[in-house]
Amino acid sequence: MGFSHKHLLGIQHLSEDDILSILDTAESMAEISTREVKKVPTLRGKTVINLFFEPSTRTRSSFELAAKRLSADILNFSLQASSVTKGESLRDTVLNLEAMNPDAIIIRHAYSGAPHFVSTFCRSHIINAGDGSHEHPTQALLDAFTIRQEKKKIKGLKILIVGDILHSRVARSNIFLLNKLGAHVVLVGPPPLLPSIFTSLNVEVSHDFDKACIDADVLMMLRIQRERQEKYFFPSIREYRELYTLSKKRLKKAKPDAIIMHPGPLNRDVEIATDVADSVQSVILKQVENGIAIRMAVLYLLLGGKSREMSD
Ligand code: CP
Fold first, then answer.
1. Is 149 in the same domain as 272?
2. Could you tell me the distance, in angstroms and rounded to a whole number, from the CA of residue 64 to the centre of ligand 1?
């Protein structure tokens, strides 16, 4: 078992062994964050660039902390203060940053395929931190890590992904990953946000949230991505709430020990009721915590740290 890829561009082309290798490495990384001194010298001398063309709270911060806990130097590219505002292209921006000899570039971009495009002309390791509606691989990895932590397995679990599936890179990466690890994935949402084409991804598709909830082990709620919608996909938020908000009443239909997940940011009382988001069944903040361990594991596996150095 190992990880032999140069880049992390998505989940679709990873094998089950690749995924397990990242999850298992993240177990060791999680321990580092519990120490009084949360730092090991594993990636000392390596340089990482956080290149975010879209806003982020969780992904950007946790990649920065992950790099720092492994002693890598990290540069946070500031879009608003950059020459992108003067019209510099993505290609020229990346070529100029690469001239500064980084080892890895972490990229988030509104265009699906931007990290793949960058990987075609870069020497550095490229990590996809979310591209358009395409993929968000480290989110799916931290979700799988959290499910495994809570449920001790993934195979055979009934996992609902609910909401704006059409525009969600989180949904796509999770569909690929959870399928590879043997979960029973059910996509739930209104028909305009969950077209029938998704059945080709080896998942069950349902427009009836109440029915789909029965016996669910995991409920993964998604935000409505208004920034990626050029038109309104449903008549009103009130109607959406009635049919698709995860309320206490709906949650009772799932297994009593079902866990509730959300990649963030939350639209409280739209896709998830506040009392559910803050309930004991919610693992939303555990997902955030686990994001650091997963991103440490990804940096470590791509940048070639030596395992013996992790105990220092
Ligand atoms: N889950 C996620 O990608 O959150 P951010 O947009 O805050 O990074």
1. yes
2. 13
